[in-house]
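Limitations

Structures in this collection are predictions, not experimental determinations, and the ligand pose is part of the prediction. Treat each record accordingly. The example that follows, with adenosine-5'-triphosphate as the small molecule, is included so readers can see exactly what is and is not provided: the inputs are given verbatim, and the output is the predicted complex.
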Amino acid sequence: MSELQLHDVTVNRGAGPVVSNVDLVVRPGEILALVGPNGAGKSSLLESVSGVIPHASGDIRLGGASIAKRTRVQRSRAGIAHIEQGRAIFPSLTVRENIMLTAKTEPALTEVLAAFPELEKRIDAQSVLLSGGEQQMVVLARAFAAKPRFLLIDEMSLGLAPVVFMRLLPLIQQIAASGVGVLLVEQFTHLALGIADEAMVLASGRVGHAQAPASVLADDADLLRAAYLGG
Ligand SMILES: Nc1ncnc2c1ncn2[C@@H]1O[C@H](COP(=O)(O)OP(=O)(O)OP(=O)(O)O)[C@@H](O)[C@H]1O
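Predicted complex:
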């Protein structure tokens, strides 16, 4: 019962539903990849889970208790972290200052740097001076420092070359290995499926069943090609 569960969740945007009757479960320590073409509703689904936008109907449960009526801040306090699309760093702050926003204490910062050793040598650099890949590393480190129970990740690779994004994958795996359940939305579908424990396809706002990532690769090759190419 320590799971993040969505029951029959529908999300409206503008004229009508962009996510319809979605059921899914994310377990602690597991990476669930949510894949699908552009406009399928992936971002809207993540936003409804963290409370950025309301959902129209259905229930969202954390550890068995409904969080459907809670505000975004309350959901964050309950353990849901959301890395939204785009570089979510404060560019004028140093790496240390960015991470301390959630780490709060020096021992916690030390713990984060042990998990993200590449950031140690850049710790006093202004974040705007970091490469795109390093900036996203800071974003992940800050999310990790908040000690969430579940982490929603929305297209962290935006603007990054696949080879740069690949350096972030072990860090996402490490966060999951620490017991955090990860719901991963990623344009580089094959890379996301490569680190996922389970995968679900979201198309036109509807999800199929959770399945092994390898079977998504085999069964949904056309859809994935379209998603990968942005078509
Ligand atoms: N702020 C908004 N207002 C109205 N409609 C929106 C808004 N944001 C997204 N939409 C619409 O909601 C639908 C789902 O979009 P969403 O961004 O959730 O999909 P996505 O799967 O994350 O796509 P992408 O990979 O392109 O980000 C699309 O039809 C989109 O045009």
